[in-house]
Amino acid sequence: MGALSGAVQWWDESQLRVLVVASLVVQYFLTFFGGGRKFSVPSWFRFAIWLSYLGSDALAIYALATLFNRREKQPSSNGSRDLEVAVALYAFCKSWSLSADNKLLAVAILIFIPGILKCFAKPLGLKYASFHSLADTLDVAERTTALNREEELQQYVQEARTFVLAKDNESSDPKKLYVPEMLFVDFAYNYSSRLTNLKSFCGLDDRKAYRSLRDGLSDIFDLLYTKKSMYVNDNPDCTGRDWGSNFTWCLSLLLPVAAIVLFHISHKKVYRRDDVAVTIVLLYSTFVLEFFSLFIMGVFHSEWPDTVAQRSILGQFAHNERHGKLMRWATRLRCKDLLDQHWSMESCHSARNITKLVHIHVHEGWKDYITDAESYREFNDVRGQWTLEREGCHEGLNWSLEKPFDESILIWHIATDFCFHHMGASVASIKPCREMSNYMMRLLIANPEMLVPGSRRSLFATAYNELEAILKEGKDDTLMNEGKIAKQLIDKVKSARDSSTKESFIYDAWVLAEGLMDLGGERMWKVIQGVWLEMMCFSAGRCRGFLHAKALGTGGEYFSYVWLALAHSGLETFPERLQRTKKLPFSVEKRKDLQTRGQDIAGPSANSKGTEEEITAAPSASQGDRAMEIVISP
User: Fold this and answer.
1) Confidence of residue 294 (pLDDT cuts 50, 70, 90)
2) What is the C-alpha to C-alpha distance for residues 267 and 263, in angstroms, rounded to an integer?
3) Which of 185-194, 199-208, 451-460 has the highest mean pLDDT?
4) Calpha distance 492→471 (Å, rounded)
5) DSSP 50
6) Nearest Cα residue to 444 out of 409, 394, 395, 488
7) pLDDT digits (tens, 9 = 90+) for 461-505
8) Residue 628 has pLDDT above 60, yes or no
9) Which of 18, 127, 257, 377 sits at a 20 to 30 Å CA gap from 410?
């Protein structure tokens, strides 16, 4: 009991010191490692960062409650962050002795000033980083002056194609690229801004183009998830905010210096050595923390992960076979699906190489496919059909692209693995093909909402169950790698006679793989690469900017590179696709039928002649073909 009572007494005496030092350690951890959120870090490390953000406030409140209770000798109630400074000031005033050295009073005041300012800086920073605030700080929306958007788009397409064909690299300057805030709040660039971006991006070499995309994503991450936007902002509407933020940072850097000097020349002999030592550590640590805060922000800003996450259905099966006992226990505990969802293969560092392929694909689209407004829209809608047409295999393989998009991804993913393990690796394009295939499968499982609306994560489980059912009979216990699994699966699918096997994703994938392998090795991988590129571009262009911004806070998705590259290359963005306009020609009979229906709705007083004149005189209608322009969704 003596040891226990001694420990309790020590805790009562040292509790406040321990809490203050612990809070300081947490602040240092967040300063140096908080920016790691933009990287693909392990889940435990991301959890530690999240826990530190929550714990920093909890430790501060607990320390203040301890200080308050020591003076008031009564229970303390938990409060929100906006009460912390008020409680600290109250406790300080109650505990201050009039006989104490005035220099120590000055030290306390100098420390409280930046603390009070930062108390208001955090909620303001959260407000400025919100999407509503981001949308409000953008340029004032301008009224569209064009009466015929089809002609405006046609003019834009001709100017953009002329630039791409001319290969005028001298005018390409990444500094002229617009920072993509508008894209992340789902605003559309006007055609002049889009043309400026295209001229600034398409002429760049692969290295500069990739760097410009990386810098753009880093800027948005800093704007939404760090305090850097409070100190550095090029928007003239935020001048007052920048001045206040910089003023706060200067005070936070200079006032601790004055506090340190005053503390050293003050009389401290009446205080305990432990308290004096802790105070010195806090003063110097606060100064160092403020001094390096912006430097650390700059270090994290300079880099952005180049990883591409991977996921494979055959890899998943091989992993579960290697950990059979664990999977059986997980099945009994009904958490196998949860484990499967969070398992992933080792990421590859091929973001730059795949982005280069996307850049080439878009350039070929402007050169060989896009000639007018209609072909411009078609190119934004292809998801593999262009590659099949160019390679002359549209009739035999197009059925796989006519399915729902999520099913097409699943079938092409399994077929890609079949081709790889059945034909072998003899072509250089195999590596990016498999990486794109595995990444799209990973998106379907982890972030299906980023593919297209309505993508079904459960398709993976359905295909996995089909794979297990096919391999169940005569199962080989040595199936520990993807190669053996693929070969045995192919043998069983080839000899399948029951309808359940033939009516499955696995069988459809094998039929597709057979059609691809008939093309020959080099041509087969060229088709697979082209289809995956078109699928990635098709899906990236249909993802909301909000989802890309959300993904940045959890390490980012490579998909954001593709999405931003398409926008900088002058292709359609999500909001523009939703606001497409298209002229629909109406025959004379159809127009008369519309007029008759209008008279029936308007009543017997409606004038048929007046209705016809109103339709004919519409400013968006062509006098030659008497077409009406209406807005339709793609």
Assistant:
1) low
2) 8
3) 451-460
4) 8
5) H
6) 409
7) 899 989 888 887 666 666 667 888 888 888 888 887 666 667 889
8) no
9) 377
Q: Please name every residue paired with 584 in a beta bridge, in sequence order, or none if there are none.
A: 628
Write down the mean pLDDT value for the chain. Answer: 76
**Rounded to an integer, what is the distance from CA 555 to the centroid of its chain?**
8
pLDDT, tens only, 340-373? 666 767 888 899 999 999 999 999 999 999 999 8
DSSP letter for each residue of 358-388: HHHHHHHIIIII--SHHHHHHHHH-SSHHHH
pTM above 0.70, yes or no: yes
Which residues, 6 or more positions from 579, have their beta carbon under 8 angstroms from its beta carbon? 188, 631
- Read off φ and ψ for residue 93, nearest 5 degrees: -65, -40
Q: What is the Cα–Cα distance from 301 to 37, expressed in whole angstroms?
A: 12
Query: What are the Cα distances from residue 555, in Å, to 41, 129, 305, 545?
Result: 7, 18, 8, 16
Tell me the mean pLDDT in the region 252-281: 80
Token pair of 89, please?
A: 């000031």
- Helix segments in 167-238, DSSP class H: 181-184, 191-201, 206-225, 228-231
Burial (CB count within 10 angstroms: exposed 0-12, middle 13-18, buried 19+), residue 300: buried
Q: How many Å apart are CA 194 and CA 572, to the nearest integer? A: 10
| Dist. CA 43–CA 50, nearest whole Å | 10
**Helical H runs in 232-272?**
239-265
Distance (Å) of CA 597 to CA 478, 586, 602, 613? 72, 15, 9, 16
The amino acid sitting at 341 is Q
| Closest of 49, 107, 348 to residue 226, by C-alpha | 49
Amino acid at 586: F
Residue 581's SS3 state is strand
> Which has the closest alpha carbon to 107: 247, 264, 253, 249?
264
**Two tokens at 521?**
């090795």
Three-state secondary structure call for residue 304: coil
In the three-class reduction of DSSP (H, G, I as helix; E, B as strand; rest coil), residue 184 is classed as helix
